[in-house]
Amino acid sequence: MNHEKSEQLAPARPRRADARRNYDKLVEAAREAFAEGGADTSLEAVARRAGVGIATLYRNFPDRADLLEAVYLEEVEAFCDSAAELLDEPPWDALAEWLRRLTAYLLGKQALSPVLLSTLGHDAEVFQRSRAAFYAVGQPLLDRAQEAGVVRPDTDLAEILKLTGGIAKIPFESPAEIDHLLELALDGLRYRSPVPDA
């Protein structure tokens, strides 16, 4: 599988070991803080959570958008890298599991994505790079499943990503509802031989 997608996907990290540790602590603290309190959590709270001063935060991330982008891209990179775990799975199982993971990933982005969209715009480079990364790992999984004859040939990754993204945006009362709807969608992707005329 092509894993070019994550080369420098996230912003370049500092080279010095201590600066790199601070950078990583800030990104991790921001990820946790944004998940708990939303993307408008104060930067001072993020710095406190990371155990660094606010000046260190601003040295790494001059404004909120820079920090949001770093968190977003590092999570995209981690998600895409996880696809390597599926390479030894049968074609259908690999694709279905990737789409389950993608749905869960998208559900976790409900707070962060709208803020980035409103701050940077839909066509911002961060989103272009993310879309390219999803295609780079998802397309080989789909190709492999279609070549094995286990996924219907009349669809493509763009349609499947729209389907998965749509499911992630629907308000649900419980995770079981999401799982059920996703399984229905996956069932629709399976290839079935046409029933011969009686």
What is the highest CATH level, the class of the largest domain?
Mainly Alpha
- Straight-line N-to-C gap: 43 Å
Strand content: under 5%
Count of discrete domains = 2
Mind telling me which CATH architecture of the largest domain this is? Orthogonal Bundle
GO molecular function: DNA-binding transcription factor activity; transcription cis-regulatory region binding
Protein name: TetR family transcriptional regulator
Organism: Aeromicrobium chenweiae
Keywords: DNA-binding, Transcription, Transcription regulation
Task: Please describe what this structure looks like.
28% of the residues are buried. The chain has two domains: 12-62, Orthogonal Bundle (Arc Repressor Mutant, subunit A), CATH 1.10.10; 63-191, Tetracycline Repressor, domain 2. It has helices spanning 17-37, 43-50, 54-60, 64-81, 91-108, 112-120, 125-147, 157-169, 175-189. The N and C termini lie far apart (43 Å). It is mainly α and 198 residues long. Helices cover 67% and strands 0% of the residues.
